[in-house]
Design brief:
Two copies of one chain form a homodimer. Chain A is mainly alpha-helical. Chain A has helices at 18-38, 45-52, 59-62, 66-89, 96-113, 121-127, 135-160, 170-191, 195-208.
């Protein structure tokens, strides 16, 4: 078969080599799938290489070490999820709180597709933080703050449109949402059901909606 | 030194041997400390034996295997925490919602003592459920349901005393509390602060308090 289409093995490939980029991306995609399921500490590089169909020993052509790989995964997941939030929370065809409700529904569908095995990479890594490289802490916090900021913007719009109580601090409520949401994702994995996501969202909306 | 005071090594000790019980308890205590910090999957039996000062190879005198040990730890933690909830939530010297607030404060102090390295064993294991023996799922759910039931009782008393809105379902609100609380514990570990616990609790009380 066309061996030239595959990444070069046994020596560092060039940065401009499309096969290099493709293999690197495949390792990142596989890493995200495995880490959203099992977290960082318990996941071996070998498992990711095997699942990605990349030969053992190739990892260090693409990443400095497991820690550097972890940092790239946190960054990739943070950005992927930021785009997801952007898609839902900035969709002005819906009123602001309906956008957040649509995000919750989408998240439930996403978890169901993966049979509630995959959770949130940031939640998984936050949970196992004591066993992680200390460098991950600021990175994880920054991702959550970015998501909170995006949620805050949506809540401020909900206040402007009269959907949400104006006496509340939108950023504090966005922080509350993300604190509880990570708990809801954890519980959805345990219960193998979207119910905890919906229960948490229902409580949150009741908490902030204008009466 | 008095070797007879130490557990017998190299052969199964008798169930009635006090040294046997003591070593077994020490392994459970150490297991709880390590698993509340690092979870189940990543924790090796060797690490627990080393920390407990029990010689390698002795583990199987006390427990059938790692899975059986895990089941015993979930049970022990569930009961330990049920006693803690009982102490706070059934302390009739305080009004019901103040008891729950006192539990939240106590939990914050507990996390601070361990420098926010240790979280909730049930939350940790729920998070890594996809990598755990399937038998743990029902056990973890049963523990959470027990805690929810205890919290529900306290909330019902708060409704009777006029502190909490009577139009709310106390069990549903207790479920909301535990869904979000596990997220707050996770975030407290990440932020190394009691702030997420307090933020979540403040939102919860605002949600349920009678106006």
């Amino acid at each position: 078969m066309a061996r030239s289409n595959k990444p070069r093995r046994g020596r560092p490939p060039k940065g401009s080599d499309p096969a290099y980029s493709e293999t690197r991306l495949s390792l990142i995609r596989t890493g995200l799938a495995v880490l959203t399921e099992k977290g960082y500490s318990y996941t071996g590089i070998d498992e990711i290489l095997k699942k990605a169909g990349v030969p053992k020993g190739s990892f260090y052509h693409y990443f400095k070490n497991k820690e550097a790989f972890g940092e790239i995964l946190i960054d990739a997941y943070g950005k992927y999820f930021a785009r997801k939030l952007e898609r839902w929370l900035e969709d002005t065809s819906m009123p602001p709180l309906q956008r957040l409700a649509a995000f919750v529904e989408d998240a439930g569908r996403g978890m169901a597709v993966h049979e509630f095995k995959r959770g949130c990479l940031i939640g998984n890594l936050g949970q196992e933080m004591s066993a992680l490289p200390e460098s991950f802490r600021n990175q994880l916090t920054a991702v959550l703050q970015d998501w909170q900021q995006r949620t805050c913007k949506c809540l401020q719009e909900a206040q402007q449109s009269g959907e949400m109580q104006t006496g509340l601090d939108a950023y504090e409520q966005a922080a509350f949402f993300w604190i509880g949401w990570e708990g809801a994702v954890l519980r959805a994995k345990l219960d193998q059901s979207t119910e905890p996501l919906n229960q948490f969202a229902a409580g949150f909306f009741r908490l902030i909606k204008a009466t």
